[in-house]
Amino acid sequence: MDYSKAFRLDGKVALITGAARGIGAAVSEALAQAGASVFLTDVLEGPGRETVDRIVKAGGRAAFAAHDVTVEAQWEAAVAACVQQFGQLDILVNNAGIETAALITQCEVDDFRRVMDVNVTGVFLGHKHAIRVMKPGSSIVNLSSVAGIIGTTGHLAYHTSKGAVRLMTKAAAIECAQLGTGIRVNSVHPAIIATEMGTNFIKHFVDLGLAPDYASAETAIKAIHPMGFGETRDVASAVIFLASDAAKWMTGSELVVDGGLTAA
Ligand code: NAD
Predict the structure, then answer these.
(1) Among 93, 117, 172, 257, which is 20 to 30 Å from 250 by CA?
(2) What is the DSSP string of the chain?
């Protein structure tokens, strides 16, 4: 293997969901820097197009499409638009996700269903429509979370959804391998990252009565990360690796990016 090229993504095309902001935007910028053409999708059109402009100004190849991951027809349209724009689809990053916070006895069934719809059904539809057009050597990377490995108070729906993504990854990896598709499927499991969702997670600790105020919630949550809080680029590096040919024998694996949280 030529290690100067093994982690590069030149000539590859990536579709990233939930790419307007946060981890999805950072992953999109990173994949573009690594040489991929990136097709960003999100329900947030304005911020999505701004992220594309940033990538293009920095010399990358990028395009945007409005796309709600819960709607199958929009998946068909997004994958078709990506292939039309860049000729193929080699990397799918199932990143779009939402969370909700409530004690189990207070959790509204509609909130539970919405989390499942975006975080689980959306990821399933991504596999369904990407695998149909992907060639051998392609890679799917699913954003699960440490929340897919361990539980916490007040986030039952989110934990359930991220656990499902962890197992969906393994089932898809085995099916793709056994059918000889040459497509790899892996999951990434970050701990708290300072995005809108990460900040909300800390706020919810106060809402749930687990901390008196934001500062004490932040201190308590930071304390369970042996290396402190991570950054979006820490997650982006893991995605580049799993998407690259350097990971050509990795499938069905779960890459934990958590500053040591789950090692304790
Ligand atoms: P974020 O809320 O900042 O961004 C999520 C993006 O997904 C937004 O741009 C949003 O518009 C988009 N989105 C939401 N619903 C959508 C839908 N139905 N269709 C298309 N797009 C939709 O969150 P983030 O922190 O960047 O999280 C990205 C992923 O990483 C999520 O799957 C999240 O669960 C996971 N994650 C986040 C953290 C963290 O601490 N931030 C930790 C572990 C895992």
Answers:
(1) 117
(2) --TTTTT--TT-EEEESS-SSHHHHHHHHHHHHTT-EEEEEES-HHHHHHHHHHHHHTT-EEEEEE--TT-HHHHHHHHHHHHHHHS---EEEE-------B-GGG--HHHHHHHHIIIIIHHHHHHHHHHTTPPTT-EEEEE--GGGTS--TTBHHHHHHHHHHHHHHHHHHHHHHHTT---EEEEEEE--BSSHHHHHHHHHHHHTTSSSSHHHHHHHHHHTSTT--B-HHHHHHHHHHHHSGGGTT--S-EEEESTTGGG-
Rounded distance between C-alpha atoms, residue 93 and residue 218, angstroms:
29
Closest atom of ligand 1 to 117 CA is: 18
| Ligand 1: centre distance to CA 56 (Å) | 22
**Which amino acid is present at 96?**
A
Is residue 97 lining ligand 1, measured as CB closer than 6 Å? yes
Which residues are designated catalytic? 158
C-beta 259 within 6 A of ligand 1: no
pLDDT in tens, 39-69: 999 999 999 999 999 999 999 999 999 999 9
1: CA distance to ligand 1 center in Å? 35
Rounded average pLDDT per 10-residue block, the chain, 264 residues: 93 99 98 98 98 98 98 98 98 98 98 98 99 98 98 97 99 98 99 96 95 97 96 98 98 98 95
